[in-house]
Write a structure and sequence with these properties.
Order of helices and strands: HHHHHHHHHHHHHHHHHHHH
Shape: globular
Keywords: Cell membrane, Membrane, Transmembrane, Transmembrane helix
Main location: membrane
Number of helices: 20
Family: Belongs to the DedA family.
Membrane topology: Multi-pass membrane protein
Helix content: over 70%
Oligomer: single chain
Structural class: mainly alpha
Protein name: Undecaprenyl-diphosphatase
Number of domains: 3
């Protein structure tokens, strides 16, 4: 790397600007940009501004302009050749799935464009998908510009601040990009799990019914079906419901372990743990006895079990005021039993966490239980309150939840109780855990709404019976 830096510093300044701009623009402008090291280039530009080879202001403007130009070309390519893609290999996807993808992009819109800027591969493909989906450029441009400014500015300034530590920062940023890709894949898995739970609100019963189609289980059912029926009648409906709920909770426990394991991989390979000492030292340098005592008092009050009790009270009140819950797992954990997933999460976080030291040294704690339960509790409270409220109340609820999560996490960092990597992992675990039930509830509401839609009275009889609409 030292030889490369020496060679680059020997080039004319205009050539450095031009080559760096071509690399940054080409990362999205051409499909081969998937192989172009855009982040490393921006870090190198930042380092060159540190040693005086380039000027910081012009370098930032040039890189931002190059990135915006590359995204504009990619958007134009998607708009021009998107129809060919759908008519070619894309016809195997089917018009219904294309329409569903268009609707999803229209719903997420600029937020997806903004977030994609920070993820390798995604920033090359998303502008093309936006153009192919027919997103107006006036909607694409502002969100894309915001993503470009933050990504380019952050990367260049990081290279500038890193100075002599450029090699270390470059290596950690590359690892963080790979970890972000794994996290996005895991988030997709969480959403799919939530959608499956929404379509199958009794997961244990759904899995048993599918297992019943397997030859061994089908043979047992055919041979001893009457015996199973008599045993079920003997147990009674109440115990049957309790057994079904217990089996569903075991499945949720397994899902929680899977999510926690995924986040452990992400945080371990992100390079974030390398910053634990620096972040812990920064908080320790600003810690005073009076502020530490006040912060400790707040953290002692806003604890996981206190928030779980609060969630139980709020869930009971809202369930009493709103519609009654049904006798299935999703209805229970989405209404009166909203505190139950938090108890499951507390057990998962306790099992996946390992004894370790704080920021001073030793092994970092992967999932501090308090941060995970606090994050999930605040998100669950916001979800319960905002589900049947007007949008100003919903915005206020989610804003308060975000402030609570950041406040408690920052307070524990200030006191030296947790590490930065452990806090990030725990907060992600709590948020993703809530996302599962939010997606499941939204999927169930949408499926129930589709089933309750009245038949079209003017439909011609020649069309035959109406086929049921498949849920998304």
């Amino acid at each position: 790397m030292h030889d490369l830096l020496t060679m680059v510093q020997g080039l004319p300044t205009l050539w450095i600007y031009l080559v760096a701009a071509l690399i940054v623009a080409g990362e999205t402008a051409v499909i081969f940009g998937l192989l172009v090291p855009g982040e490393a280039t921006l870090l190198l530009v930042g380092f060159l501004t540190y040693n005086g080879t380039l000027r910081l202001g012009p370098a930032l403007l040039a890189m931002i302009a190059a990135a915006v130009l590359g995204d504009a070309l990619a958007f134009r390519a998607g708009r021009r050749y998107g129809s060919r893609l759908r008519a070619g290999l894309g016809h195997r996807v089917g018009p219904e799935r294309w329409a569903r993808a268009d609707a999803m992009l229209a719903r997420l819109g600029g937020r997806g464009v903004f977030a994609a800027r920070w993820v390798a591969f995604a920033r090359t493909l998303v502008p093309r998908l936006a153009g192919a989906a027919g997103m107006p450029y006036r909607r694409f441009a502002p969100w894309n510009l915001a993503g470009v400014v933050t990504w380019v500015g952050g990367s260049v300034l990081l290279g500038h601040v890193a100075g002599e530590s450029y090699d270390t920062v470059s290596r950690l940023l590359g690892r963080a990009t790979g970890a972000a890709l794994v996290l996005l894949a895991g988030l997709l898995g969480v959403v799919l799990a939530g959608r499956w739970l929404g379509r199958n609100p009794d997961p244990a019963r759904a899995l048993l019914s599918r297992a019943g189609a397997l030859p061994p289980v089908r043979w047992l059912s055919a041979r001893y079906g009457v015996l199973f029926f008599l045993v079920a009648m003997r147990i009674g409906p109440a115990w049957t419901l309790l057994l079904n709920l217990a089996a569903g909770l075991l499945l949720l426990f397994a899902a929680g372990l899977a999510i926690a394991g995924l986040l452990a991989v992400v945080v371990r390979n992100s390079g974030l743990a390398a910053l634990d000492g620096a972040i812990g030292g920064w908080f320790a340098a600003r810690r005073t006895p009076d502020a530490a005592d006040a912060t400790l008092a707040v953290v002692s009050v806003v604890r996981g079990w206190v928030l779980i009790v609060l969630v139980a009270v709020v869930a009971a009140v809202l369930a009493w005021r709103n519609r009654p819950w049904r006798a299935d797992l999703l209805s229970v954990v989405g209404t009166v039993g909203a505190f139950v997933p938090l108890l499951v999460l507390a057990v998962v976080a306790e099992l996946t966490g390992s004894p370790g030291a704080g920021p001073g040294g030793g092994e970092a704690v992967p999932f501090p239980t308090q941060n995970a339960v606090v994050a999930a509790s605040f998100c669950t409270l916001a979800w319960l309150v905002s589900r049947s409220a007007r949008w100003p109340v919903a915005v206020a609820a989610w804003t308060a939840a975000a402030a609570g999560v950041l406040g408690v996490g920052g307070a524990r960092l200030y006191l030296g109780l947790d590490t930065a990597s452990g806090t990030a992992a725990a907060v992600l675990l709590g948020v993703l855990w809530t996302v599962v039930f939010m997606v499941a509830w939204a999927t169930r509401d949408r499926a129930m709404g589709e089933r309750e839609q009245p038949e079209d009275p003017v439909r011609p009889p020649s069309q035959g019976p109406r086929r049921p609409v498949e849920p998304c």
